[in-house]
């Protein structure tokens, strides 16, 4: 059967994928290697490339091919690919090339400056670079909203989480807001009765690096197809064939870096297990950012917070830093699942984590809708942290609204995906337990294989073949159901 | 004055420069970071980009703009830029896009495989990948020769060293062949009378890295605009705004890595001092590869072999590895200028170095002209090494024809530039001594500034504003004169 229009689209997307490969590697390099004076030229190069890719993706002939390919005799994977190409094309053609180029320049400059402004607690300096980033994000949101009929914020979120709306997020987060503060209180009271012993340093950076790499191996990361490096903000970048994970090390503690690495390893394995035969086509891309986060949180929270994981970790810690009472499996598990409201999202435990997300969502949604301005952020931040976690953050921008890379990088509409991901992860593990009733005993014995096999079959290799809802139903029998998350927390922390 | 055609060309070259930036960084990453399973996708990405850039550079409208810009009221720098754009355009349009793409794929694969084949002494394995690389290089040479009227080898060499011909190289190298073996013998007899004390290890890699970075600072490398990393074959890559130097460390000796770093720092400073206001345009590119090597060899040989450099180095070595008799300035200088025929080009002293180049030139020229085949290389290599340096290399491919990255990377026609560069470097230092008669006393006192100032004014910031001959005349009063090189060697080693 001949499918000339489809083939032509597929070959354009292969070219986009290959050029995007260079963009990804240069982006990773920018965050992990690049010296400061390289930034101006790098930003210009990234903007040039973004404009070029945008031009390729909005070529009017693609629209004709899309229409014609719909009439061709495609198989199921091809049809799914065509759906994803269409989605990409509709979003891309809504945005003029000069906006894409301006966005690239503004975010690249803002992110680069943020790397020194954050430690300097320089909120006014940050505002100067962030205002253009926000102005462009609003412009983009308005264009995408006009095309899709979604609200402005929803139009941005749709890029990361197709099909998700702020109405649904409001409902889910509203529910969490109702039970979370009480749960945090209960868990803290309970944990206070059985406190964990703190580990005693020093924790030399080189030993931490060794430890992180060992744990990545335990978690199945393929070092022949990826690396671990250091950056200001940990992320998982690169390309599926060459996954570039980053972490950051603190000399006074290893657990933050280690669990951050466990988190990124979940992202990394998703990327490393996307369907090879389809790589280069949109259908082979990760389904969505909530799905991506559901993998990092399956690793960090579902597996990482399991007593069996602490048992696996314990001898590695002895090897890395020398044995000490804090490294005993029971104590280690208590340390890992210790709930303590803190300022930093990426260091947060899984119970207080949703508070960080709700806070950000409740700022960035009205920010995009034009209901508030960047100058309003600190006051809202302070109020939200006090209300949700009882913490005073006034004047501390470093550990406040400057802590995340997302806003400087222009990733507005992303934050909800973290908590939606945590909810999906709980839903996946409920499904895994149905398939493997002795799952906990097996993890307890150090056997992570059943979990990995399920994730590989149901998530990683499925990539974007189905819509998110379809994938969730195929994998777990229903669409996103936040009840699994609450049940997971109550079982682990109050059970 | 309006110059629309010129402006249009300049803006195309700015775009090429920006996209080339990503290609350079990805190329550096490929050699210094990339895990093995990343190579297939990286090669495809690099080939896609090479084809894209080639398509941009051969756009027929550029030819029209070139013709019209020649009639526009351009200033001197613009006129020079137009000359360089024309040169680039004529070379690019001689090659079809599919050749460029095939070349990228073949060299990328060959170079990647070479990284493991070299240590494995796997000549037959290498041949398999090298044959397609050579076939494409020959095809390219034939096309360029047809366009330019040059011989095939000259047409390749012209890319690296515009205006240089194998007739001139034959004459220069023929002369060197006449006096070199005798000089090596004389120098070795003389040095045997006053042998150097060898340094005693260990030389921990982390201390070596510290040492290299200190020496780079002494030599004026700007770490805000560049880095030092590790790769199998040291090189200086990246972009002028972000120079990526590499070295390799051996635990049993530090001098090879250190002097290699001094060499690459010369390349690095050239790049870091290209004229900022013109960056992005061909006129701001380094003049030629012999000129580039004249900078690395000005650093490694002219400065690095000077007694004053040993005096600068001595306290740094004490700091790096602890004091020992070998690190005394006089002994250190004897170590640095010790002449000893060896198998490895990049480790060779400046007296035996030309022998390595003549050997390679006498193989790659007939290889490109189709007079010999890749299977003939080992026998020619063995014979040449025996004749020129008295060394038996039979069966040792690792330290023989597999030692350099140039052939696997498809860089045929490059090797002569090293020795031409050494000759230019000697010519520059003769000119610097005329301008600064107390140069040796100043270098002896640790003051390298006069040499750097001259190189900056006469070479680095001049970039491609003049042809190589014009630049040499402006800088030193005459075109390339190899007599300075011979005089330098006789003065330093027999004086």
Index terms:
mainly alpha; 495 residues; 3-stranded mixed beta sheet
Euclidean distance between termini CA atoms of chain A = 58 Å
Whole-number mean pLDDT of chain A: 96
Low-confidence stretches of chain A: none
Secondary-structure content class of chain A: mainly alpha
Main sheet strand line-up of chain A: 1-3-2
Strand content of chain A is under 5%
Nearest-angstrom radius of gyration of chain A?
22 Å
Bin the helical content of chain A: 55-70%
Pattern of helices and strands of chain A: HHHHHHHHHEEEHHHHHHHHHHH
Q: How is the quaternary structure best described?
A: homodimer
Largest sheet geometry of chain A: 3 strands, mixed
* Count of DSSP strands of chain A: 3
Number of helix segments of chain A?
A: 20
Spatial shape of chain A: globular
Model description:
Two copies of one chain form a homodimer. Helices cover 64% and strands 3% of the residues of chain A. In chain A, strands 1-3-2 form a three-stranded mixed sheet, sandwiched between helices. With 495 residues, chain A is mainly α. In chain A, helix 2 packs antiparallel against helix 5 (97-117). In chain A, a hairpin with a 2-residue loop joins strand 2 (236-239) and strand 3 (242-247). Chain A is built from 20 helices and three strands. The A-B interface holds A 15, 18-19, 21-23, 25-26, 29, 33-38, 40-42, 44-49, 52, 222-227, 238-239, 241-242, 279 and B 15, 18-19, 21-23, 25-26, 29, 33-38, 40-42, 44-49, 52, 222-227, 238-239, 241-242, 279.
């Amino acid at each position: 059967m001949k499918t000339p229009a489809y083939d032509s689209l597929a070959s354009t997307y292969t070219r986009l994928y290959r050029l995007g490969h260079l963009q990804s590697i240069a982006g990773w390099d920018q965050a992990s290697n690049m010296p400061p004076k390289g930034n101006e030229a790098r930003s210009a190069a990234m903007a040039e490339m973004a404009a070029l890719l945008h031009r390729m993706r909005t070529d009017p002939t693609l629209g004709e091919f899309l229409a014609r390919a719909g009439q061709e005799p495609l198989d199921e994977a091809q049809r799914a690919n065509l759906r994803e190409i269409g989605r990409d094309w509709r979003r891309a053609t809504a945005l003029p090339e000069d906006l894409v180029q301006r966005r690239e320049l503004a975010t690249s400059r803002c992110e680069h400056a943020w790397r020194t402004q954050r430690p300097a607690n320089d909120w006014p300096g940050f505002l100067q670079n962030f205002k253009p980033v926000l102005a462009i994000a609003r412009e983009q949101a308005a264009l995408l909203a006009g095309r899709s009929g979604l609200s402005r914020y929803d139009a941005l979120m749709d890029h990361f989480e197709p099909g998700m709306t702020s109405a649904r997020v409001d409902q889910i987060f509203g529910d969490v807001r109702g039970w979370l503060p009480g749960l945090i209180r209960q868990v803290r009271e309970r944990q206070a009765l059985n406190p964990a012993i703190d580990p005693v340093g020093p924790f030399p950076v080189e030993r931490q690096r060794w430890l992180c790499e060992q744990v990545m191996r335990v978690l199945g990361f393929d070092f022949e197809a990826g690396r671990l490096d250091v950056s200001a903000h940990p992320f998982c970048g690169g390309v599926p064939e060459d996954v570039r994970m980053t972490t950051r090390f603190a000399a006074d503690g290893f657990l933050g870096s280690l669990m951050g690495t466990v988190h990124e390893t979940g992202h990394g394995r998703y990327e490393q297990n996307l369907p090879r035969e389809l790589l280069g086509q949109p259908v082979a891309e990760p389904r969505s950012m909530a799905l991506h986060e559901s993998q990092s949180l399956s690793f960090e929270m579902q597996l990482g917070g399991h007593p069996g994981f602490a048992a696996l970790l314990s001898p590695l810690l002895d090897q890395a830093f020398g044995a000490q009472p804090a490294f005993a499996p029971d104590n280690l598990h208590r340390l890992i699942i210790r709930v303590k409201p803190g300022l930093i999202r990426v260091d947060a435990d899984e119970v207080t984590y949703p508070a960080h997300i709700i806070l950000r969502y409740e700022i960035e949604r009205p920010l995009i809708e034009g209901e508030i301005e960047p100058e309003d952020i600190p006051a809202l931040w302070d109020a939200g942290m006090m209300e949700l976690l009882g913490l005073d953050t006034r004047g501390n921008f470093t550990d406040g609204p400057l802590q995340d890379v997302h806003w400087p990088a222009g990733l507005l509409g992303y934050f909800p995906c973290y908590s939606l991901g945590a909810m999906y992860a709980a839903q996946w593990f409920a499904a895994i337990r149905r398939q493997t009733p002795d799952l906990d005993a097996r993890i307890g014995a150090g056997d992570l294989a059943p979990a990995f096999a399920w994730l590989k079959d149901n998530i990683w290799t499925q990539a974007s073949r189905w819509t998110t809802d379809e994938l969730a139903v195929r994998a777990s029998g229903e669409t996103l159901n936040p009840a699994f998350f609450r049940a997971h927390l109550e079982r682990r922390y109050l059970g």
